[in-house]
Design goal:
The chain is an alpha+beta fold and 797 residues long. Helices cover 42% and strands 7% of the residues. Strands 1, 2, 3, 4, 5 and 6 form a six-stranded antiparallel β-sheet that branches. Strand 9 and strand 10 form a beta hairpin. It is elongated. 39% of the residues are buried. This is N-terminal kinase-like protein. Regulates COPI-mediated retrograde protein traffic at the interface between the Golgi apparatus and the endoplasmic reticulum. Involved in the maintenance of the Golgi apparatus morphology. It comes from Cyprinus carpio (Common carp). Keywords: Coiled coil, Repeat.
């Protein structure tokens, strides 16, 4: 009666058994399952009492007990279990049989020797634990007793026939009684015929090794044929299957032999796996070295092992081990194996946390490798959690940080919101272009601005582009002037006909007499492009609307501007190679050969104080290759070349305070608001910088000479970022050089001379000098009028 009201215990079981992909494993049926509450995957071994014999039921109950009580990293992990009158359930970590795993690997080209070496290492270690530590014999070792988890690690199971090796009696039947086919795996000697307690298990270990490399064992005599067993393993394999049981080694001894120099288990994969197993007790210095070396070995590691074994350790090392930047390179390598959903769940939260780090090595590696994870970042995280930390790099005292920050904007711009893109980012770009003392960074700022122009709103494009590119054309650094010209050409569709005629062409025309021939060539090509557009409208005014259709176009979404991404420094190759290789030390922009441009007669001659050091060591030049792309100027295609850039320029004007060809300031309603970032005297305001640099490091020198402190500017390549390496694809878009700045005379692009015979730059310098002397004279007069100070009087000025 009471049994009628009793609940079925299976209904209260916390796990659901899935019907598909069931496999037979001895007397058990291996099924996939999941936890009902969380959906966590598991494996469930099921034995139906009604379908088995009394001996099999006895073995099943013995296996249930052993699996529940034996705990070892290399033995199948017990999670839960249920024993009823009708069936037995053993819940373990999700695994598959070794036979099924090897079959799947064979379809992919076969399991590698590295994977097999680690798998056998784990099985031998588990067997050694049973024999030497637990004083037990397995008695059932074979393909059917080995299972493989998600990480590709081998686990020892099949504990049905485990018995004590200390002489205790047992009532369990031998394997061949349950399954006669297993008789071929029995050792040749009779039970108790001599030898140590482990002789039977190590014989079956030899049979397992033979089957792993050669497939199913047809008969015991086949063990004499080595087949595909690796040469390093052959001597040790022969010891296992020797006819004399007394010479068969202990499992621990066999493991030691295989780990000896030149042994089958002596390789980088096994070493890495052993280190990961003991990583919690390793010293911090050892962990740092391990993660640095891990990146080189990951390519040869199995994919599943990287995802399920290496990745959790990397995340743990960052979260709790203070591993720092060294985990980034292996972390992103492993990330390539993850799906988009897994990447979002496991790696993105860690990356977002990394951006808040103050470690410079961490920051620069994140910026260098941003291309590997940018597609997984959502816009909300970029704007609220990443961009506020990234912008601090614009004002960093180290040129390499500023360089990588500028380059990262190419990837972040499509995900930035209106405020961050059109206001905050433009403010930092204005500062870099006007005040950075590194020519390549100023040039790359211009390059980056041209690339992200399609993402800006129409109002900001009209307000910024012409002023920014006009400023670049006045840069003493030749590559910056070329970038300004190419910026105009690449964004020509965003300018109205009136702007092209009244603002752009006058600016470009001044470059037709540039000291460098390549800059002049680019200027002529750009002028022809704009003149062609003006001629088209002049001949057919009805085409005006079509030509200006993009002037007020809405900002593009991510990826829309990829077709012209290679415009940056087209045609600058010969210009900069001439600058680096042939230019005399002490000059930043030497005139091109056969240049028709007259040089100003007035002004101090530059001194070559740094030329000796430059001639002795040219290691300061650090350049990267450009991606092979083309930029079309109307009907002309200009092929990209690689180039090298040096540094240095004198910046006085803001983007909103440009001068036209006749020296008059251009002021438009679109430009007036942009000038708020500058003081009344035209110098850039310092107040907005989150981490302001010193004045000496942020302002470009006002003369051709450098202070003694600035003559030792370090190169980006001189900084050791804790072994940081890595090169993102976006680095191909830039050519960056951080060189020792030499005493030099900065050339200007305003070649027109005033009636007094002085150039505009010299005239402005003369006026500033006169003003300074006038202020000093007035200050001296005030002091003289007051007379000497009396004792105890307070100085008010």
């Amino acid at each position: 009666m009471w049994s009628f009201f009793a609940r079925d215990p299976i209904k209260d079981f916390n796990y659901e058994i899935l019907p598909e992909n069931q496999e037979k494993s001895g007397i058990w049926t291996l099924s996939r399952g999941k936890r009902k509450t969380t959906g966590e995957p598991v494996s469930v071994f099921v034995y139906e009492v009604s379908q088995g014999t009394e001996e099999q039921t006895q073995l099943a109950k013995a296996a249930f007990k052993r699996t529940k009580t034996l705990r070892h990293p290399n033995i199948l992990s017990y999670v839960d279990g249920l024993e009823t009158e009708k069936s037995l359930y053993i819940v373990t970590e999700p695994v598959t049989t070794l036979a099924a795993h090897l079959k799947l690997q064979a379809e992919k080209g076969g399991a590698s020797d590295l994977e097999v070496s680690w798998g056998l290492h784990q099985i031998v270690k588990a067997l050694s634990f049973l024999v030497n530590d637990c004083h037990l014999n397995h008695n059932n070792l074979g393909m059917w007793a080995v299972f493989v988890d998600r990480a590709g690690e081998w686990k020892l199971g099949g504990l049905d026939h485990v018995t004590s090796n200390q002489g205790e009696s047992t009532s369990l039947p031998p394997p061949k009684v349950i399954n006669p086919d297993l008789e071929r795996y029995d050792p040749p000697e009779s039970p108790g015929g001599g030898g140590d307690k482990w002789t039977g298990d190590v014989w079956r270990l030899g049979c397992l090794i033979w089957e792993v490399f050669n497939g199913n064992l047809p008969r015991a005599s086949s063990l004499r044929s080595l087949g595909k067993i690796p040469k390093q393993l052959v001597p040790h394999y022969c010891e296992l299957v020797g006819a004399n049981p007394k010479i068969r080694p202990n499992p621990a001894r066999f493991l030691l032999n295989c780990r000896s120099p030149g042994g089958f288990m002596n390789n980088s994969f096994v070493e890495s796996c052993l280190f990961l197993e003991e990583i919690q007790i390793k010293e911090p210095a050892e962990k740092q070295q391990f993660f640095q070396d891990l990146s080189e070995n990951l390519d040869s590691f199995p994919e599943n092992f990287c995802k399920h074994k290496v990745l959790p350790q990397l995340l743990t090392a960052f979260e709790f081990g203070n591993a720092g930047a060294v985990v980034l390179t292996p972390l992103f390598k492993v990330g390539k194996y993850l799906s988009a959903e897994e990447y979002q769940q496991k790696i993105i939260p860690v990356i977002v946390k990394m951006f808040s780090s103050t470690d410079r090595a961490m920051r620069i590696r994140l910026l260098q490798q941003m291309e590997q994870f940018i597609q997984y970042l959502n816009e909300a995280a970029v704007n609220s959690q990443i961009f506020p930390h990234v912008v601090h790099g614009f004002t960093d005292t180290n040129p390499a940080i500023r360089e990588q920050t500028v380059k990262s904007m190419l990837l972040l711009a499509p995900k930035l919101n209106e405020t961050n893109l059109n206001q905050e980012l433009m403010r930092h770009f204005a500062r870099l272009q006007a005040r950075d003392d590194q020519g390549p960074i100023r040039c790359n700022t211009t390059v980056c601005l041209g690339k992200i122009a399609p993402y800006l709103n129409a109002g900001m494009r009209q307000r910024v582009l012409i002023s920014a590119f006009s400023r670049a054309t006045k840069d003493p650094f030749p590559a910056s002037r070329a970038a300004g010209v190419l910026g105009f050409a690449a964004t020509h569709q965003y300018y109205s006909v009136v702007e092209s005629a009244s603002r752009i062409l006058p600016t470009l025309c001044t470059l037709t007499v540039d000291p460098d021939k390549n800059v002049r060539d680019q200027a002529f090509k750009a002028i022809k492009s704009f003149l062609s557009k003006l001629e088209t409208v002049s001949e057919d005014p009805s085409k005006l609307a079509e030509i200006e259709k993009d002037v007020t176009a809405l900002a593009q979404t991510g990826g829309s501007a990829a077709t012209w991404a290679g415009w940056a420094v087209t045609g600058v190759s010969s210009l900069t190679s001439k600058l680096i290789r042939n230019a005399p030390a002490g000059s930043e922009a030497p005139p091109a050969e056969n240049s028709p441009v007259p040089q100003p007669a007035a002004g101090p001659a530059p001194t070559n104080t740094a030329s000796k050091g430059v001639q002795q060591d040219r290691s300061y030049v650090s350049c990267q290759r450009l991606c092979p792309m083309e930029l079309t100027f109307s009907s002309e295609a200009v092929k990209k070349q690689s180039s090298d850039w040096s540094s240095g320029w004198d910046a006085d004007d803001s983007w909103s305070n440009e001068k036209d060809a006749d020296g008059q300031g251009q002021s438009s309603p679109a430009d007036e608001g942009w000038g708020n970032d500058w003081d009344e005297d035209g110098s850039l305001a310092e107040s907005f910088s989150p981490t302001p640099r010193s004045k000496a490091s942020t302002r470009a020198p006002k003369s051709g000479r450098l202070s003694s402190a600035q003559e030792g500017v370090r190169l980006a390549s001189d900084y050791n970022w804790d072994g940081a390496e890595g090169k993102s694809a976006t680095s191909d878009l830039f050519i960056l050089v951080f060189s020792v700045r030499e005493n030099r005379k900065c050339f200007t692009n305003n070649h027109a001379f005033t009636p007094s015979g002085l150039s505009k730059a010299e005239l402005a310098k003369k006026k500033r000098e006169e003003r300074r002397k006038e202020l000093e004279a007035k200050r001296a007069e005030r002091k003289a009028a007051k007379g000497p100070l009396k004792l105890g009087a307070r100085k008010l000025d």
